[in-house]
Amino acid sequence: MNIILFGPPGAGKGTQGYHLAKEFNLYNISTGDLLREEVKKKNDLSKKINLLINEGKLVSDEIIKDLIKNIISNKKFTNKLIFDGYPRNLNQAKTLDLLLKKFNQNISFVFNIKVDQDIVTKRILGRQTCSKCGSIFNKFFNPATSINHNCDEKFLVTRLDDNETIISKRYEVYTNQTLPILEYYNNQNLLHEIDGMVDFTMIFNEISGIIKSLEA
Ligand code: AMP
């Protein structure tokens, strides 16, 4: 099965994707993470990508298509994908359909994790990711401690685009360009609405429950 996790920045897609991947033996693919890896290469393309990310704008569909094609064409990932942060506009949604068709796959579920903008902002401002193990924490809601995290504190990083100005730009891009895709998936009966205002475990249980009931 292939899954799309949909929702505004800070909805918890990364955290849910990480745990759903473990539970269902899937791979969580975040286009944001793929782009941040590209940025590390420090070439002309990576500079352009970095600029767009730090302005809260979308990176071009062509760049995203190349990254996603590499993943979908890889047999290791066949029908084992969770897409986090992709597709971000209607053109990307249509490209995804074409790529999946080309490699004999389809989408099984689209989960729309719904969260209000003020909560999203708080979640993003507190977000910390461990650069060593990949775990995601939140300074306010779920801080890293010696009990829930084995790596040294120095590995905890805050993303440069996780600041108030860029967050509101990212939210605006989400509302104008990403949100309209929901209609596209609703028309295909793939859409499941999830209350993202409750705690992590409740969201996880709701999504897992739907997958188990429909996959059985
Ligand atoms: P994220 O990690 O999903 O919050 O993404 C961080 C940033 O990477 C976004 O604000 C965009 O600049 C860029 N990005 C991530 N995914 C995409 C995508 N599918 N299409 C275009 N830009 C993206």
What can you see in these coordinates?
The protein has helices at residues 13-24, 31-39, 44-55, 61-72, 90-102, 117-125, 164-178, 181-186, 200-215, and strands at 3-6, 27-30, 81-84, 109-114, 127-130, 136-138, 156-157, 191-195. The chain has 216 residues and is an alpha/beta fold. The strands form 2 sheets. Strands 2-3-1-4-8 form a 5-stranded parallel β-sheet. A 3-stranded antiparallel β-sheet has the order 6-5-7. The mean pLDDT is 94. Adenosine monophosphate is lined by residues 9, 30-32, 35, 52-53, 56-59, 64, 85-86, 88, 92, 170.
The helix-strand sequence is EHEHHHEHEHEEEHHEH
Principal-axis shape equals: globular
- In angstroms, what separates the terminal alpha carbons? 12 Å
Q: Determine the structural class based on helices, strands and strand pairing.
A: alpha/beta
The ligands found in this model are: adenosine monophosphate
Mind summarizing the main beta sheet?
Answer: 5 strands, parallel
Secondary structure tally, helices:
9
| Total number of beta strands | 8
Return residue spans where pLDDT drops below 50 for at least 5 consecutive residues. none
C-alpha-based Rg, rounded: 17 Å
Kindly state the mean pLDDT as a whole number? 94
Oligomeric nature of the chains: single chain
What portion of residues belong to β-strands? Answer: 5-15%
